[in-house]
Write a structure and sequence with these properties.
Elements: H1 7-102, H2 106-153, E1 165-169, H3 175-180, H4 185-194, E2 197-199, E3 206-210, H5 214-230, H6 235-264, H7 271-279, E4 284-285, E5 288-289, H8 290-307, H9 312-321, H10 336-346, H11 351-359, H12 369-383, H13 392-407, E6 412-418, E7 423-428, H14 435-452, E8 460-465
Parallel strand pairs: 7-8
Antiparallel strand pairs: 1-3, 2-3, 4-5, 6-7
Helix pairs in contact: 2-8, 2-14, 4-6, 5-6, 6-7, 6-8, 8-9, 8-12, 9-11, 9-12, 10-11, 11-12
């Protein structure tokens, strides 16, 4: 007989069965999960293979398309070159046809076009300049006349009466022998000490002193007058009197410079400039006393500046010193404008004064109002009636040159220098010169006159173009 299992022996068996069942279920689940993962992996790999194959097919299509585009581009480039060559050939044929039809080469046609454009540009520029000048003239001419007229009418200037020879009056002709001295020793000593030529001729009661330096001539005149008055004339006495006369002339020059400053109303000037200014009382330009010219110019410039609402002190200073270089031109090389500007700079004058002196004859382009007013005042003082004079030969030569300058232009028929050379009338042929070209001729003649000639004041250039129609009644 078998032994019946008890309750205590069945529990381990049940637990073992349960564990085995759990393990079996776990294994089954693991197998199923592994199978599903493997299936999904295979599906993903298959999808990747399909995507890779699709990309490879697309890349192949793109490569084929790129090859086709490269071929098209090469073909288009070849066509482009062929078209350029055909266009060049057509252009050459067109140019040859145009040259054959016009009877001109390309270079000649280009030159003709340039000439036409240049003529047209000149005409348009002349029209524009004429309009601008008319507008400016309408606005400023009346005011400028009023200012200049006011400045000139307030000036009372002297007439020219100066020469390069000084005459000394003698109490009698007997003293001429004493001036000459035994065997001419007195006159030789006088000329050696003073540097002035003493002319003793048959003119009754007069001897003459000749020298290019007016200050030296003035010293000699004062020396001779003192010797004649004293009566003692011998070489040693001549030297003593000459030294005193030179000192007296220097004192008078300094006094003249101070008087000029006081008359104009200018102060605080270097003593050397004052002395040089005073020396100009013995210097003349075209017969006009230079010191009086400077004083006149300063007064005119001051009046103009006041009318324009400017402070006249600086303008007066510029005008008073503009010819200061003439005091030393016989000792220093160069134009008196450049020399005067250097003197003013050396003795501490303002830059405006230096520039006005350098630019008053146009050697330097004026860039300040003071320089322009100095030019205008200089022209007014030198150009007023009776202010200056010049030799007939120089005057005629200038008139001939004026007519030659105007007559050299194309289309000019006749030229007349009028009003003592202050106006030039240019008669042009009406069929050869139109109104615009007449304006161009006037401007070119004026510019050439400014560059080549020296003259006081201004010269008016008038171009006359006249058309006449003539018929006869029978």
């Amino acid at each position: 007989m078998g032994i019946a299992p008890t309750a205590g022996s069945l529990v381990p068996v049940a637990a073992a069965v349960l564990v085995a069942a759990v393990l079996a279920v776990g294994a089954l689940l693991q197998h199923r999960l592994h199978t599903e993962a493997k299936r999904e992996t295979e599906a993903a790999r298959s999808e990747l293979r399909r995507a890779r194959n699709e990309l490879e097919r697309r890349e192949q299509r793109l490569t084929e398309r790129e090859d086709r585009l490269d071929g098209e581009q090469r073909r288009l480039l070849t066509l482009h070159h062929e078209l350029d060559d055909r266009a060049a050939l057509l252009e050459d044929e067109r140019r040859l046809l145009l040259e054959r039809a016009a009877g001109l080469t390309a270079e000649a046609a280009h030159a003709e076009l340039v000439r036409a454009v240049e003529v047209q540009a000149k005409r348009e520029a002349a029209v524009l300049i004429r309009d601008l000048e008319n507008s400016a003239r309408e606005q400023g001419e009346q005011r400028a006349r009023e200012i200049i007229a006011l400045a000139v009418q307030r000036l009372a200037g002297e007439q020219t009466a100066e020469s390069a020879v000084s005459a000394v009056r003698l109490p009698s002709d007997d003293i001429k022998g004493r001036i000459i001295g035994r065997e001419g020793r007195n006159i030789r000593a006088f000329e050696s000490v003073t540097g002035v030529n003493l002319i003793v001729d048959e003119t009754p009661g007069t001897v003459q002193l000749s020298c290019f330096d007016p200050v030296r001539r003035e010293v000699a005149r004062l020396t001779l007058e003192t010797l004649v008055t004293d009566g003692r004339i011998h070489p040693q006495r001549i030297e003593e009197v000459h030294l005193r006369s030179a000192a007296e002339v220097e004192r008078l020059c300094l006094r003249a410079g101070e008087d000029a400053l006081l008359e104009v109303g200018v102060s605080d000037m270097h003593p050397e400039l004052v002395r040089l200014l005073g020396r100009l009382r013995h210097r003349t330009s075209y017969g006009q006393n230079v010191l009086r010219h400077l004083v006149e110019s300063a007064q005119i410039a001051g009046t103009m500046a006041a009318e324009l609402g400017m402070a006249p002190a600086l303008v007066k200073r510029c005008a008073l010193l503009h010819d200061i270089g003439k005091a030393v031109t016989h000792r220093v090389e160069g134009s008196h404008a450049a020399i005067g500007a250097e003197l003013a700079r050396r003795y501490g004058e303002p830059d405006e004064v230096v520039h006005a002196i350098a630019a008053h004859h146009g050697e330097v382009q004026p860039s300040t109002v003071e320089a322009v007013l100095t030019q205008a005042a200089d022209a007014c003082s030198g150009g007023r009636p009776g202010a200056r004079r010049e030799s007939l030969e120089l005057h005629v030569r200038r008139l001939e040159r004026l007519e030659a300058i105007a007559g050299a232009h194309e289309g000019v028929e006749k030229v007349f220098a009028m009003q003592a050379g202050r106006e030039v009338r240019v008669m042009v042929r009406p069929h050869a010169v139109d109104d615009i070209q007449a304006q161009v001729i006037a401007r070119e003649v004026a510019k050439q006159v400014e560059q080549e000639l020296t003259y006081p004041g201004q010269i008016r250039i008038t171009v006359v173009r006249e058309s006449r129609a003539t018929e006869f009644a029978r």
